[in-house]
Amino acid sequence: MTDRDLPVAVVASEVAPRVKPSNYPEPFASRMVGREKRALGDLFGLANFGVNLTRLAPGSESALRHAHTKQDEFIYILQGDPVLITDAGTTQLAPGMCAGFKAGNGNGHQLINRTSEEVVYLEIGDRSIDDAGIYPDDDLQALFGDGKWEFTHKDGSPY
């Protein structure tokens, strides 16, 4: 596919969701049931940063609580009222609110939909090579290289 074949504009909610709901190994992948991501950045061939339109069904979570060593992340709430969990505790979010997560500070973050309504938000992150994911609450660590995430236990042993 060439750049000329890429779309100019789309309706974000009509972009097909990712086929694989999670890159996490089990037992963590099954915790992502109810999360749906539409990879908008990939659709436009963006190489320096990614953009996902993400939907959380009632009771679902965005990710395991995590922090990145090199990747900055940003979220913007479009619909619903998720709870943001960080090292500082919980923060109730609402449509129009946003949050940013600076790389390298170790502050783990996660969204949880504790309501009976759907949550929809945009998540934006850069695609830093050699980024690592730190999971303070789980026996998991991740390294991003060659365009994909590699997951191991914290002791380095494979899943």
CATH architectural label? Sandwich
Question: Numbering strands along the chain, what is their spatial order in the largest sheet?
Answer: 1-2-9-4-7
H/E series? EHEEEEEEEEEEE
Largest sheet: 5 strands, antiparallel
Q: Please state the average pLDDT score.
A: 95
Question: What's the name of the CATH homologous superfamily?
Answer: Jelly Rolls
Give the low-confidence spans.
none
Report on this model:
The protein has 159 residues and is mainly β. It has a single domain (21-142), classed as Sandwich (Jelly Rolls). The chain is 3% helix and 37% strand. The chain contains one helix and twelve strands; from the N terminus they run βαβββββββββββ. The strands form three sheets. A five-stranded antiparallel beta sheet has the order 1-2-9-4-7. A hairpin with a 2-residue loop joins strand 5 and strand 6. The longest helix has 4 residues, at 40-43. The mean pLDDT is 95.
